[in-house]
Amino acid sequence: MNFTNFNISSSNFKRNMYEDDTILSRGKYKFTALCRVPPEYLLNLYAKKNKANPELYEYIEKNLSRIKARAIGELEIPELHLVCKKIVYSSEKVAKAELKRITEMKNDHKIPIRSYYCEVCGCFHLTSKPQS
Q1: Is 12 helix (H, G, I), strand (E, B) or coil?
Q2: What residues in the chain have per-residue pLDDT under 70?
Q3: How far apart are CA 70 and CA 20, in angstroms?
Q4: How far apart are CA 9 and CA 55, in angstroms?
Q5: Would you say 98 and 89 are in contact if contact means Cβ atoms under 8 Å apart?
Q6: Chain-centre distance for alpha carbon 19
Q7: Cα separations (Å) of 34 from 3, 43, 45, 84?
Q8: Mean pLDDT of the chain
Q9: pLDDT, position 12
Q10: How many of the other CB atoms lie within 10 Å of CB of 4?
Q11: φ and ψ at 109, to 5 degrees?
């Protein structure tokens, strides 16, 4: 899955283009793979020339014909195979921000105490288990 997908070349970071399995890390469809975002929503962003997320706008622009075909039912939404069934966070920073938010809430449930990188899916999760 492509959350915040980076190619490292020398000391510069180059962001890769979004793909159908890219999980959005912000906005109305946060934690949703692009292939699962309603095509009408993507077409609306494109029509409004909304470039708040340049990588998303580029994805829409390059996949415009496929998105339009999905909107009118000519193209099926691809099946998405999830590796982990846990809540995923695109970066350690995002996971820690969520950890802080949860910690400040008052509840009787298990409270996560740390974030960790998952070797299986390549993303971050929260856990209530202490680090061993």
Answers
A1: strand
A2: 1-16, 80-82
A3: 12
A4: 19
A5: yes
A6: 11
A7: 11, 12, 13, 17
A8: 81
A9: 37
A10: 16
A11: -80, 170
Task: Please give the model's pTM, rounded to 2 decimal places.
Answer: 0.54
Compute the distance between CA of residue 62 and CA of residue 17 in angstroms, rounded to an integer. Answer: 10
Give yes or no for a contact between 129 and 111, defined as CB atoms under 8 angstroms apart: no
Beta bridge partners of residue 7, listed in sequence order: 14
pLDDT digits (tens, 9 = 90+) for 94-119: 889 889 988 888 777 888 999 999 88
Lookup result for tokens 């014909």: 65
Strand ranges for the chain from DSSP E: 6-9, 12-15, 114-117, 124-127
| Separation CA 73–CA 76 (nearest Å) | 7
Q: How far apart are CA 129 and CA 112, in angstroms?
A: 7
Asked if residue 18 lies in contact with residue 6, where contact means CB atoms within 8 angstroms, the answer is no
Q: How far is CA 26 from the centre of its chain?
A: 7
For 26, what's the count of Cα atoms within 13 Å in the CB-facing half-sphere? 8
